[in-house]
Structure formats: structure tokens, C-alpha cells
Amino acid sequence: MSKIYTRTGDKGKTSLYDGQRVEKTNPRIKLLGKIDLVTSQLGLAYSLLSEKKDTDVLKTWINWIQVLLQDLNSHTATTDHNERKYKKTRINIDELKTIENLIDTMEISKKPLKTFILLSVSPSSCPIHGASSQCNKS
Fold it and tell me: 3-class DSSP state for residue 3?
């Protein structure tokens, strides 16, 4: 892809990875947009963390999750289930378990919640909460 725009979606349709044309209201396209939104919110959190010390581990995890989300986007945009790329981008159960373990590890390191979380704890936590909310909404 040489440009970030193609002008092929100007009439209410867009293309999936395999070239199939679908309406922009197609559930796949809506899911792709939601995944993009989560990925960009994580990117914002990453960029805000880049100024802070001792955040390398968290930045590594954010980057890894963004890569998984891009694979999920590729997987979602591929309709030919026999295609090599479809199989390549499939997220496996071990990756999901790794994310769950990461969450569990972060849960252990904090005190139990007694009140609702205010979303202004730090600039980098706000987009992470936004990404989480978008996932829950989807």
C-alpha cells in the first residue's frame, strides 16, 4: 500500500484484504474501526510513557498487544479461511493466556479497590482506560 488513502471507499464501500468489496456499514468494517481505535489509544499511552523512567516493561507489553491487535485486524479483514495469511494472523490461546497472566500480575501489585477509579491518575493511564472501555463496549 503506497498511500494511506485509496479513494475507493468514496461510494460507501471498501475492500477487505482479499479484495472483496463490502459496505462500510458491514460488521467486519465496524470491528476493524474499533480495533484501530483501541490500538491508537494504546499508542497514545505508549508515547506518553516514553518520557518516563522505569516504564520499559510496560511499553514492551503495550507494543506486543498492539502487534496482536494488528494481527486481529488482518485476520478480521481476511475472508478466505484457507489463505496462508489467515492462518498466520490467528491469535492463539497461549497469547490470550499471556494477556490474562499479565493482567493478573498487575492486579497482584496493587491494593484492592475500595472506590471507583478516577481516570485522571496520570496522562498515560487515561488512554489505557479508554482502550479498555472500547474493548468492553465491543
Answer: coil
Question: What is the value of pTM for the model shown?
Answer: 0.74
Question: Structural domain boundaries of the chain?
Answer: 26-106
Residues written for the chain:
138
> Please, which contacts does 96-102 make with residues 24 or more away whose CB atoms are closer than 8 Å?
99/65, 99/68, 102/61
Q: Specify the higher pLDDT residue, 52 or 33.
A: 33
3-state secondary structure 88-133: HCCCCHHHHHHHHHHHHHHHHCCCCCCCCCCCCCCCCHHHHHHHHH
- Please list, in sequence order, all residues whose beta carbon lies within 8 angstroms of the beta carbon of residue 70, skipping any fewer than 6 positions away: 39
